[in-house]
Amino acid sequence: MNLRSKVADEGTGTMSITIPTLLADGIEPVKSLALAIADAPMVEDALAEQVGALCWRLHKGRVQVLLVTSRDTGRWVLPKGWPMAGKAAEAAAAREAWEEAGVEGLVQAQSIGRYCYDKIRPNALPLLCCVDVFPLRVRRLKSDFPEHKQRRRKWFSAAEAASLVAEAELAVLLGQLHEAPELLTAAPLLDKARQPAS
């Protein structure tokens, strides 16, 4: 019987199990160990889907990527968030780019990649999030946007951005853009990244 089925049979609380120890002559059971199984879930199997905007521009013939700082740790990240009811994924990504970075521009209708990360949450297990990334060609940056007092934003080359982000899969995607910037315009662009009406 595994621990999960034991908890399911007995419920949460305190459970005793016998832990064997190695002795010179072999294995011998010793004292019972009381395990406190709190009311928290044993394992969180959920996978959360998010959308992200890879905000970019051409500067002196080279691709530059706009990164923003996260509100909690100050790491460099792409603008991203949860899907929005009634909005296509690329439109939701464009909305996140507006709210987190003040971006207006043209968003690509098709994702160019995906990366996953563990979202750290207070008083909860980490949540595995996978982000579909939509390129958004920046037309203009506004200085007054919803999260302007909570984040910094900065342009980087694709290669430099790849070295700054913590998520390995995102770093690979950014590195590919450095090598093949045509990936950014492989699908039609949609004018869904204008400043949304509140």
Characterise this structure.
The structure is a single chain. This protein folds into 2 domains: 3-37, no CATH class; 47-190, Nucleoside Triphosphate Pyrophosphohydrolase (Alpha-Beta Complex), CATH 3.90.79.10. The protein has helices spanning 3-10, 89-101, 158-164, 168-179; strands spanning 13-23, 26-37, 47-59, 62-69, 76-77, 80-81, 103-108, 113-119, 127-141, 153-157, 189-190. Helices cover 20% and strands 42% of the residues. It has 4 helices and 11 strands. Helix 3 runs antiparallel to helix 4. Strands 3, 4, 5, 6, 7, 8, 9, 10 and 11 form a 9-stranded mixed sheet that branches. The radius of gyration is 23 Å and the shape is globular. Mean pLDDT is 79; it is low at 1-25, 27-44 and 191-198. The chain has 198 residues and is an alpha+beta fold.
Summary, kept brief:
With 198 residues, the protein is of the alpha+beta class. The chain contains four helices and eleven strands. The strands form two sheets. Strands 3, 4, 5, 6, 7, 8, 9, 10 and 11 form a nine-stranded mixed beta sheet that branches. The protein has a two-stranded antiparallel ribbon with strand order 1-2.
